[in-house]
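User: quick one, fold this
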Amino acid sequence: VHKLAEGFRFTEGPAWSPDGALLFSDPNANRIYRYEPDGTLTVFRESSGYSGADFASYRQPGSNGLAFDASGRLTVCEHGRRRITRVEPDGTLQVLADRYQGRRLNSPNDLVYRSDGSLYFTDPVFGLPGLGDDPRRELPFCGVFRWTPDGEVTLLASDLRGPNGIAFSPDERVLYVGDWDDDHKAVMRY
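Assistant:
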């Protein structure tokens, strides 16, 4: 094991860019970092997840999970803004998902693309200041969702306490989802 860098508050969501750089989030510091193959570390994006007036009330206002789509565009779980965005080639942000059946998502956490272009993501309450008791919470569950390129958001699971990490098996036949809270840790297989 080789330490690449240090001095972060909390790191999450590592993703390799098409040009060989490693991008990762520090949700507590509200930043995305970029680590170059030559060892250079830069801040890729400040205010990566939230910038509202009540910013100080958030434990993890920043981005969390990161992934690149088949076209090489970065996709970001924005905890504080409670949405998933994609960075377009011109640098603008495209909101992919921020609601399910008219209600705001909790705080999208981790994500993975499938080869057909659909995006699977977890939505626990980890990014809400009051967690499950936060008055801003609109969904009565923590979910696992699928987003399709036509903009449809489909609920796949609503019985998990804290859906977190998410990945496919190499053949994409099995979806793995981490389920985590203080009293319970498991990996679910779908």
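User: anything notable?
Assistant: DSSP finds no helices and 17 strands in the chain.
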